Each structure stands twice: as C-alpha cells, then as structure tokens.
Amino acid sequence: MTSFKQRISELLVKQQGANAEQLDTLAGEATRTGKNFAKLLIDKGIISDIKLTELLSKELGLPMISLAKYRLDPALSKLVPERMARQYAIVPLTKYGERLTVAMSDPMNICAIDDLKSLTQVAVDPVLSTESEIRRAIEQLYASQVPVMEAPVVNVELTDDTSLDTAVAVLLNENASQQEAPVVRVINLLVIEAMRRHASDIHLEPMADTLRVRLRVDGQLAEVHRLPKAVQNPVLTRLKILSGLDITEWRLPQDGRFKVRLEEREVDFRVSVLPITHGGKVVMRLLDKANLSIGLDKLGFSNDSIEQFHATVKRPYGMILVTGPTGSGKSTTLYSVLNQLNQPARNLITIEDPIEYQVQGVIQVQVNPEVGLTFAGGLRALLRQSPDIVMIGEIRDFETADIAMKASLTGQLVLSTLHTNDAASAVTRLVDMGVEPFLVASSVSLIEAQRLVRKLCTKCREPLTPSPLVLERLELKPSKTATFFKPVGCRACGGSGYRGRMGIMEVFQVDERVRELVVSRAQSWEIKEYAVKTLGMRPLRQDGLLKAEQGLTTLEEVIAVTTEE
C-alpha cells in the first residue's frame, strides 16, 4: 500500500469512522487494477470528492481552492505540457519568480512534483482541489492545443542569439532571470543548430559524467557538444513530453514524434528512446517535407531514368521496386514519386513501419505487430479500401510479397522497397521468398537500385587530375570534357569539403525478355547483363563515376558505396 493510500485510510478510519477492512480491500483493488484509490473511494460512496479534499487540506495544512472560480493563465500551458497535466492531474495556477503554484488532488505524489521540478527548474508549491474540477480545468486550459493523436508543433525563433553554453548555465541555475524555461532554450538551440547544418539525425547519448550530443551530417556522425550530466534528466524528459511518450518509463524502448516550425520551414522529428547503461539514449531523425517536392532530378536521377519512371507511373497497375541498403534514400525516392501522384482524384494509401513522412492527402497506416496489424494483414485490409496507388514500406516476407504482387495485377499501382545490392537481384530475391516466378514476371514493371554519395562543396572544391593507376583500376576512360575535383573544406561546408548528398542509381524497365529470364529462374547476373547491354541500364558504379566526371562528387565517395561491384 502506498503512503497516499495509507494516509487516507488512516484519516478516514480516525475521523470518519470508516471500515478499515473495506479500505484495505479497495486499496488492494487499486493496486491490482491500477485504478486511482481516491476515485474508488468516491465511486463507492465512502466519501465525496469535496469532503476528501477538505480532509486532506486540514490534515496536510495545504490551502484548498475552487478552480471553478479561478481564472487560468493560458501562458502557463506552455510551461506544463498537456500530457504531464493529464498524467498527474495537475493544473498550473501562477508563477512568481522561481516558484510555480499548481493545483493537485494528490499532493503526496512525490513523483509528480519531482518531475515538474525537473522540467521547469523552479520550486513547486501544491494547493488542493477536487479531481473533477482539475479535469475540467485541464480541458479548459489546453482546449486550443494540438489533439493528442497529432504530433505537436514547436515554434522555434531565430531571433534568440543566446549561446548553448549560456542556456545550459541558466538550466544549472547560474542565471535565474530568464522568463522562458531554460530547458526549452537548450532544446531549441540544439534543434536550430541541427537544421542549419542540414543534419539528418541528432544523437543525445548519456555517458558516465556527461551528455554527449552528436549530429549526423551527410551520413557522417560528428560530436558537437558535451553537456553537463546535471542537464540530462530535464532535457531528455522534455523531449519525451514533446514526443508524447511516457516520462515515467525508462526501462523500455519508446518511439514518438513531434514537429518543429522554423521560419517558413516545417520539419518532422521522429524520436527513438533506448534504455542504456547511463540513462536513455535519444535519437531524433529529421524528416524535412521540402525534400518530397524537389523532384527526381534533384535527387540525382538522370533524364532517361526520370522518363522511365514517368512512363511506368502512368500505367494504372504494376509494381515499382526501389532497392538498396538501409540509409540509401529509398523512402525519400518513393515519397517523391508518391508526392507527384498525389491528386484529389486518386486514393493513395501507404502501410509503413514506421511512417517516415506525414503527407497531407495520403492515407497512412502504421504497422503494429503487438495488436496483430502486420504488413500482410494491413495490406489485405487496405486493398478493401479501393486504393488506386499503394505504397508498402518494405517487403519483408512471402505473405506480404504475394499479396502485393496479386494487388499489382488487379488494378493497383504498387510501390515498395527491398534490401538487395542491385536492381537485378530484386526479382531473384522475390523468387527466393517463395513467390511464383510467373507472378514476379507479370507484376514488376520497373526496378531501381540506389546509393547515397556526398556532394562536393562548390565553394571550396579544387580541380584534381586522377592518377593513371586509379583510372585503370576503375576501368574508367574519362571524356575530354571531364573535370574531377577534390574536397578542401571551408566555412560553408563546416570544413568537410562536402555539402549535401545525392543519389547514384541504376534503373531498368522490365520487358518481355526479362520476364522470360525470370520465369526460367535465371541468375541475377544474367538479368543484369541483359539490362546493361540491351536496355541501356547504367550500373551503380558507372552512374557514380559519371557524376564524379561532372564534378558533383569524388571518386573516393563512389568507390566507398559501390565496393560490391
């Protein structure tokens, strides 16, 4: 029995003459079912909520107020997030200097008060009110905020020139004059820095005595800060609240998301929390919706590849497969195609794990194996929703592949990804999964494989003449107009010599001869050989070398991502 239950029980027996055995039974029920003990007392008619609050007020020496007569300050809703207010049944009332007054129905909930102190970095003074009044006040105070199911939007201002070191100092109470909660300033500055550097991930890693911050820029991780250990809990707790996660759970992995609006730019943040030795490691993936509308040409596709894509998506049915290892930009390519197909006259549905980008006008389904919603089960269900275009996040097993193939033959255009080394291996992978070769041959219309290479910074790159030995090793005979460059490093690119990434691709449309090869269970190298010689497919390395000749990337980058060739 918790101290709260014990204290209430003692008071009820002593002052109200309640039955001790009945209270023990209710306390056991509360522990067993997770129900609120005070609410059980009120529901069973043992005491009214007003009488219970009066009893606690007298015993604990805390003032009791009527929230129905109290005018709430909407500004305080930014200081205490809605999720925390609902979880602990608390309502912020006033903030004077470094003291925050909150209304609670359970002032003995030490966890609630400690979490609130950790988040706001101010002292917390509880006052008593009935839970029913607190619940009504929460609805009133947070009525204009984003619905619970939506990712919350955080507006970040660029006018704040406070350094991260200064914000951390405030968080450590070295400067208490700031009006905005210092933990908010620390997170805002980290987010601004990541967005300015065009980072794809922010890693917050608790160490033995520090909180390490790393950014992944152009695929490369680099340490940018080491924050004091004392700021770890408030920063990570604030991020969990933003992401709609349980702030009391640090033993299990959790996933959430939120949005950040910086000037005219809105970026989705997908958040993953993993319990590790010294706390919880948080990785935030930045998903910029602006990348979806830049077009295939900006992603690195050549004109002939784009024409093949356009010809394929004009068909009312068939399957487009995008292949490559994790982190090769497959999702961005598929979303870019999906974005171009997104029209009111079409019904577009995706099933993903997880949902990368949230796209307006597209119905998106999140896989949830814990409740039985698998790729295969979800795909069966969404096919009954009369879709025109279906995107499957990844084909992982025979059942998903089989349903997807049949769907592509019965009137739907299906887009999906596979993990294979090259385009030709995609069809043999599907056959290896157990899909009948004739189904693969009939359904697949276009296959594309890709990798990501870093782009040279155009402000500091310098011409380079490759050695004849390197050219011979790569079997490269550059044209007379070819110009190779090397990275140098400047302020614009952060000293790396590279700025941004682009794709190198190999694409081919499936014709009758490829279908014959698939049905006859030909090897992937046979299909690739035919695609190169007859269909004019440019292999990954060749496409990369062509971009190196154009001065877009370096030979080293191309070699690094195409080692299997």
Q: Which descriptors would you attach to this protein?
A:
elongated; 565 residues; seven-stranded mixed beta sheet; 24% strand; alpha/beta
TL;DR of this structure?
The protein is of the alpha/beta class.
Write a structural description:
Helices cover 38% and strands 24% of the residues. The protein has 565 residues and is α/β, with parallel strands linked by helices. The strands form 4 sheets. A 7-stranded mixed beta sheet has the order 4-8-9-10-5-6-7. The protein is elongated, with a radius of gyration of 29 Å. Mean pLDDT is 83; it is low at 144-150 and 174-180.
**Strand element count:** 19
| Count of runs of 4 or more consecutive helical residues | 22
Beta-strand percentage range: 15-25%
- Rough outline: elongated
Question: How would a crystallographer describe the biggest sheet?
Answer: 7 strands, mixed
* Cα-atom radius of gyration: 29 Å
The share of residues in helices is: 25-40%
Q: Please identify the structural class as seen in this structure.
A: alpha/beta
